[in-house]
Structures are given as structure tokens and as C-alpha cells.
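Thread: sanity check for a docking pose with zinc ion

Original post by kr_44:
Hi all, I'm comparing my docking run against an independent structure prediction. Below are the sequence and the ligand SMILES. Could someone generate the full complex and paste the C-alpha cells? I mainly care about where the ligand ends up relative to the chain.
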Amino acid sequence: MIRKLSYLLLGALFIGFFIVNLSSFSEGQSQETGLTPVLNEIIQQVKKEDLEKHLRILTGADPFTLNGVEYRITSRNTFHPDIQLAVEYIVNSLESSGYSVEKTPLSFDYAVKKVAFENLTAQITGDLYPDEFYILVANYDSCAGLEKNYDPLTDPTPGADDGATGITVVLALAKIFKNYHFNYSIEFLFTGGHEQGLWGGRYYAMDAVETGKKIKGAIYSQRLGPEPKAKRSKLKIIYNNHGKWSVFDPSPLARTFLEVNGDLTFGIKPILIFSPQQIAADFIAFWEWGIPAVVVGDFSNSNYHTFKDKPENIDFDFLTEATRIIGAAAAYLAEVGK
Ligand SMILES: [Zn+2]
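Reply from moderator J.T.:
Ran it for you. Here is the predicted complex with zinc ion included:
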């Protein structure tokens, strides 16, 4: 209880966050690992054009073709019919990369009705530890709740930064990882119902605990698109006090981002941020159920939750470097190519 109280006090003092900047584990400290050449090879395959293509389709800026028919995703709001197109686009992208996709039908109560949605998963089975998973997560829905008189059923809701950037990162890494072997299993998870109460993440985490699924760590990609003029250079890796981790002792999952940054060269730098309080993202669901998780994001785009959250307001150079860091950390954790 006292410990809990001290975290609350910390939270109040630092408005929820605490930027970790201790020299003992700052960037560049780690020895080069045996994995460095393969991690380098992986990050070289992350291409800005590929990310831009996914993001423009997911936000309706460009159409996509499925079975000879052209579609445009004008919204990924949970209540908008086009969200089904977004689901089909994600499924199709994963299938084109060689995966079979599992759709988990779920629902939540909203006002007086039941709202149906799906979580989507695809897997790479680990060679040595097939039953132990690292999870790469993004939520696929969007919202423009800051607009006056917003109608989620009909209004276009591009949701570029929030959260097409996250979907794009996970789709791009799924494609690259498919050509590699890993010691641990990797699951790519796309959650729905996020904007109405993190439903996809909550169901997933609850089910994992109930079925005894061993999750070594979840990396949640969220809001990775600052504005082009913002010239951001830091990628935030947020962890919390689940277990024994604190501002002075970041979780191994969070530390990995600094370690890979020591071995490899990126255009932006990861910084660890300790969050003693819960903030609004799917990883709360993971923390609530005792699953190690970090959220990776930038969170600075001022078009968040408005109609202006569009591809032209995204810094794709930042998104590319962020995807490389997340890819390197995930491949390192899951022990690629060993
Ligand atoms: Zn949102």
C-alpha cells in the first residue's frame, strides 16, 4: 500500500510520466551482440515507400483493390461500415505476406446495444520455444471525437497518426519477419473497439491469462506520426511499475530498445519513460493482467482525433526510423536467426 502510494505521489509530481535518463543504461552501453548483422539486415528492409503506401490506403487517401474491385477506406471508426474494409485490407496484407489470419469475433455493450468487432492475429512459430510469445500490437480503429458534431457513423475519419501508423508498423514488420526464423514465437495482433474502451486489448489479455498463454512481452505501436515540421528526434518507450520495475530500474523489455540502439544506427533515439499511472492505450489491458508490455509512440501530432489526422500531416522519416527500432527490438527479443 505504501509502495502504491509512493507511485501515486510520483505520478502527481511528474504528471504521470518520468523520463528515464540514467547513464548506467543510456544508449551505446551494450556490447555488439551476435545478432547485429541480422538485425542490420532486417532494418534495411524497412522502406519509407512501403509504410507510406499502407498508411495512405488505411486513411482513405488512396484506394486499394481486392478481387478486382476498388475500395476506399473513408473511416475506421468502430461504428462506420468502412471499418470492415480496413479489416479486409489488414487480413489481405498479412495473407499476401504468407500468413493465415485468425479472426476472433468479440462484442461489447455500448449504450443499449451490443457492438460486434474482431481481433486479428497471425503468427510465426518459434523454433525453440513455440509456446512462448512476443506480441506486436496495434489497434486498427479510428476516432475524430474532438470535432464538433462528429458523426462516427458517416463522417470520414482518416486516423493517420492515431492509429494507422501503428497498423502500418506491424504490417511492415510482419512482412519482413516472415523470411526469418526465431527461437520464440511472434504474434501480430490487431485489436478493435479501442476507442470505446480498449476492448480488443482487454479481451486478448484476459484470454491469454485464462488460457495460460505465455507472453514474454507485448510491444504496442501507437501514434508514431509526428507532424513533418515538428522535427522530432526521440521515440518514447513507456513502461510502468508492473512487477518490480521502477524509474530507477526499467523493465528488460524497455531496456532492449536502448540496447539495440547501442548496436545499430537509427535516425531517432529511443528514450524510456516510466509511467506510474495508467494512460489510455491497449497496453493498460496487458498491465492490468500482469503481462509485460511497453507502448511505443510519439504522441505529439496535434491533429489527433480530428479530421486533419491525414497522411500529409505525418513525418514519414520519423515513422520509418521508429519502425526500424521496433523491428530491431522485437527481432532481438524473439532471438532471430539463432
Ligand atoms: Zn484515439
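The two ends are 43 Å apart (CA to CA). Hope that helps with the comparison, let us know if your pose agrees.
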